[in-house]
Design brief:
It contains three helices and six strands. It is an alpha+beta fold. This is SnoaL-like domain-containing protein. It holds the Pfam family SnoaL_2. InterPro entries: NTF2-like_dom_sf, SnoaL-like.
């Protein structure tokens, strides 16, 4: 399973740098579940998860001069935890992506956690605008 999660994370990094042909389609399982730091209920399915991940990538990696960077990675079994730092609207954002995959190399669960509170509020506002605009 270590090889599978390594491949998934390598493809995820390629997605985040805009170098993954086909985008998220080949990376996400059809029944993937997305857990947002600002939405109470889990978001289920490839279509809605794609919308959230595209909005998150644009919000976290696309703003404030490209300050987004992963700082730590921990992998075990079918799961990886990727810590990141960035800034949104001039506010420092620290968070983790928790990614779990199946044995075919598709992401089946994606969970995002953020800190501090002012960062959560800034990300919530920016992502809300992005999702309302269609991605």
């Amino acid at each position: 399973m270590a090889q599978v999660i390594d491949d998934v994370i390598a493809r995820w990094h390629r997605y985040m740098t805009g170098e993954l042909p086909g985008g998220l389609d080949g990376l996400l399982a059809d029944d993937v579940v997305f857990y947002s730091p600002v939405v109470y209920t889990p978001q289920r399915g490839k279509a809605v998860t794609t919308q959230y991940l595209q909005a998150a990538a644009g919000t976290l990696a696309g703003g404030d001069g490209g300050t987004f960077r992963y700082t730590k990675e921990v992998r075990a079994g079918d799961t990886a935890v990727l810590e990141f730092e960035t800034s949104v609207d001039g506010k420092y954002v620290n968070g983790v992506d928790i990614i779990r995959c199946d044995d075919t190399g598709r992401i089946v669960e994606f969970r995002v956690m953020l800190r501090p509170l002012q960062a959560i509020n800034a990300v919530h506002e920016q992502m809300g605008r992005s999702l309302a605009a269609g991605g």
